[in-house]
Amino acid sequence: MKKTILIAIGLVILLAACDRKAFVKKIVGAWKLDKYLFAGQDKTLLYDTTYRNWQLVIGDDQVYTKAWQNFTFTPDTLTIYDTIGYDSVVMSYTIDTNVYPFVDTLITPHLEIGTWELINSEEDLQLKNDSSSAVEIYRILDLTKNNLTVRKGNEEFYLGK
Predict the structure, then answer these.
(1) Which residues lie below 8 Å from residue 24, measured CB to CB, with a gap of 6+?
(2) Domain chopping of the chain, boundaries
(3) What is the tens place of the pLDDT at every residue in 125-134?
(4) How far is CA 28 from the centre of its chain?
């Protein structure tokens, strides 16, 4: 009887270890944002504008990178003065002034590197930033080979490979 119980416990532990490896294999990879919900409303366009080319790369070595770009648009003008001619009678120059409005675009790349871990019986994904020691915890709602859905507070991220 004891032998049967020990074998059953061993099989359960073995199956749990195999299931964890398969789960980790699915979560490892480069994920891009497909859809973003904030408080149940689709805010993908706003998020994609603020965090341009957002990407989360989860490595099998427990290291993650999060990269995106911020765009800053500043209205500006360029004024060009050009001497058209010289009036020798009144001794003055004729100057042509042209004002060209434009938008100055500043692209700021961001890169966050840290470690990741599955916690709470592999229901949550924890990201710990190496530079700021900030910790983000995402609840894993759905995970397939090519799709990952996570929630952080009232934000939902639908990611694809």
Answers:
(1) 60, 118
(2) 29-74+104-160
(3) 999 999 898 9
(4) 16
Residue pLDDT, tens place only, 68-78: 999 888 888 88
* CATH 2.40.128.280 for domain 29-74+104-160: yes
- pTM of structure: 0.70
Q: Which residue carries 């299931």 as its tokens?
A: 19
Cα–Cα distance between 161 and 148 in angstroms, integer? Answer: 9
Residue carrying structure tokens 């434009």: 102
Radius of gyration for the chain, computed over Cα atoms and rounded to the nearest angstrom: 28
Identify the H or E element spanning 131: none
Distances (CA, A) of 110 to 54, 66, 119: 9, 8, 27
SS3 (DSSP) at 154: coil
Using the 8-state DSSP alphabet, how is residue 59 labeled?
-
Contact in structure between 124 and 138 (CB atoms under 8 Å): yes
Q: Mark residue 121 as left, alpha or beta (left: phi above 0; alpha: psi -120 to 50; beta: remaining).
A: left
| 137 pLDDT higher than 90 | yes
Q: What angle do CA 29, 65, 133 make, to 5 degrees?
A: 135
CA 124 to chain CA mean position, Å: 18
